[in-house]
């Protein structure tokens, strides 16, 4: 069992000491006020318990408001007025409950109004504070992932100039003997390596660069697959030339997964990719065949699990992702707002 940090032990000891001290003072105060009057002491206990329950109720309601309406509506700019409508309805409900508790006597209207404003203000503030902590945690996760990615890239970049040198040598030799096919494939591979080593280090790149990278990858996949009737590829990429930015290497795990699990040299298979970037909205509809031999894989692959996490962190409330697998077909539908 891992021992508690020294700072945490000090904190727990301080809080325990303060609690004992406060309890001792409270006991002395009650003894001085009520002595052995059990009825008054019981009434005070009920009064104190009601305030504890009130604080707990406000805390629970604030948490539910944050987990529900705040995250559903407030964080989505186009639905924000639904959140404030909910807050207005909640304020009215709290006020009516307070009025009911006071038998709707007019002399308590001002007091109930003030209590309503305080309680609803605490609930709203709870949402802001909780979301600030969430955003901080996500920034720390992104920073950690970025550091790990940079370390992984450094391990794989033993000497990229050395690799580029030999790729250029192969390309020049293929061009010398007029082997255009080999020369083109080497050029595509060099482009993929250059993108992976340089562009992927940036937080965001142009959608045009990302689509160009995918096109190079698909060119190599087409070249490696045999020309066979059992293997069907249907690939459509459309871009409206409007400037937009996207996180690098965000789409490639989906495409890699399709070719890794959807292609078989023994059975009929297919990969269908439709990718459209229009009006700063990207839509990816991908389908591929699946086979029983791949049923042992866990989930949808590590790559897709990672990209799901990136989408949740970088494009929260700005994307929809649907994944399903049935009747031997694996299907992904992604819609992403790039603004």
Overall form: elongated
By secondary-structure content and strand pairing, the structural class works out as: alpha+beta
Helix content: 55-70%
Strand order of the largest sheet: 2-4-5-7-6
> H/E series, N to C?
HHHHHHEHEEHEEHEE
- Name of the CATH first level of the domain at 228-337: Alpha Beta
Give me the CATH architecture of the domain at 228-337, please. Answer: 2-Layer Sandwich
Superfamily (CATH H level) name of the domain at 228-337: Histidine kinase-like ATPase, C-terminal domain
What is the strand tally?
Answer: 7
Largest sheet: 5 strands, mixed
> What's the mean pLDDT score?
79
Please report which band the strand proportion falls in: under 5%, 5-15%, 15-25%, 25-35%, 35-45% or over 45%: 5-15%
CATH topology type of the domain at 228-337: Heat Shock Protein 90
N- to C-terminal distance: 48 Å
Cα Rg: 31 Å
Uncertain stretches: 295-299
SS element count, helices: 9
């Amino acid at each position: 069992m891992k021992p508690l940090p020294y700072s945490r032990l000090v904190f727990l000891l301080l809080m325990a000491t303060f609690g004992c001290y406060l309890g001792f003072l409270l006991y002395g105060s009650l003894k001085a006020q009520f002595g052995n009057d059990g009825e008054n002491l019981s009434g005070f206990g009920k009064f104190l318990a009601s305030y504890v329950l009130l604080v707990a109720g406000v805390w629970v309601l604030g948490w539910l408001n944050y987990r529900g309406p705040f995250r559903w509506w407030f964080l989505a700019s186009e639905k924000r007025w639904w959140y404030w409508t909910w807050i207005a309805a909640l304020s009215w409900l709290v006020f009516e409950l307070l009025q009911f508790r006071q038998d709707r006597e007019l002399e308590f209207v001002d007091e109930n109004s003030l209590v309503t404003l305080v309680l609803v203000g605490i609930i709203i503030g709870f949402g802001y504070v909780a979301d600030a902590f969430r955003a901080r945690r996500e920034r720390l996760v992104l920073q950690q992932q970025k550091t790990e990615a940079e370390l992984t890239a450094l391990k794989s970049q033993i000497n990229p100039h050395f690799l580029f040198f030999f790729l250029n040598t192969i390309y020049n030799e293929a061009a010398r003997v007029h082997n255009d096919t080999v020369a083109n494939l080497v050029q595509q591979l060099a482009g993929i390596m250059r993108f992976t080593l340089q562009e992927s280090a940036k937080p965001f790149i142009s959608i045009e660069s990302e689509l160009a990278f995918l096109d190079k990858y698909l060119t190599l996949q087409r070249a490696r697959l045999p020309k066979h009737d059992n293997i069907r590829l249907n690939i459509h990429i459309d871009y409206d030339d409007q400037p937009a930015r996207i996180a690098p290497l965000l789409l490639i795990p989906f495409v890699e997964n399709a070719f890794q699990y959807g292609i078989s040299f023994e059975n009929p298979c297919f990969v269908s990719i439709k990718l459209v970037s229009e009006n700063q909205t990207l839509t990816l509809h991908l389908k591929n065949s699946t086979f029983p031999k791949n049923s042992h894989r866990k989930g949808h692959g590590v790559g897709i699990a990672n990209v799901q996490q990136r989408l949740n962190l970088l494009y929260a409330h700005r994307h929809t992702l649907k994944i399903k697998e049935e009747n031997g077909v694996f299907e992904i539908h992604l819609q992403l707002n790039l603004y």
